[in-house]
Amino acid sequence: MVYFIDRGPKQGLLPFVSRTKNGRRSFTENDLHLMRTIICLKNAGVPVAEIAEFVALRLDGDQTLTTRYQLLKDHEANLKKQLNDLEETLSYLKFKEWYYQTAVEAGTEEIHLVPGSQEVIPNLANQYADHLRDTNQLAELDRFENVRDYRNRD
To answer: Signal peptide span per the entry (predicted)?
Structure first.
């Protein structure tokens, strides 16, 4: 937050903040609300130039409401996609954890390989799905079955 307060004015993000006679920044409750919005946008990966544009639009008043609303909706959609991608990645990593956990317990990775080869058995994903069913991890099973990979990418 301190970094933001220090750098924000230089990036055009805090044009609304007034100063005291001594030159210190003075923040109103409204300023703090907008700063929280700016920080949220920054955390969402919105480029600083777009955040500065959002701030400028806000200062322009009601005629920019639709534009600001759409900007937020667009970034919400981006965040939801990123969250979905991260959930899929996490689900696949859990599958790989299970793979190595069971191999460690067996003392060999061969339990997951076609005999006499280094190729993974064709039904390995089904075995993992059975494990998830057996341990009642149905939400994880649903996520795992819907992971987009090289077979079912958009």
So the answer is: none
The per-residue b/e assignment along 14-43, b for 16 or more CB within 10 angstroms, e otherwise, is beebeeeeeeeeeeeeeeeebbebbeebee
Q: What angle do CA 97, 100, 102 make, to 5 degrees?
A: 105
Amino acid letter, residue 4? F
Of 22, 44, 60, which residue sits at a domain end?
60
**Total-model pTM:** 0.69
SS3 at position 120: strand
Average pLDDT per run of 10 along the chain, which is 154 residues long?
Answer: 49 67 79 88 92 90 97 95 92 96 98 95 95 97 83 48
Q: Is 26 contained in some domain?
A: yes
Q: What's the confidence (pLDDT) of residue 59?
A: 85
Helices 65-106 and 124-134 sit at what angle, rounded to 10 degrees?
Answer: 100
54 CB-side CA count, 13 A: 23
C-alpha dist (Å) from residue 106 to 5, 32, 112: 55, 57, 10
CA atoms in the 13 A half-sphere facing the CB of 93: 6
pLDDT at 29: 85
Q: Are residues 88 and 140 in the same domain?
A: yes
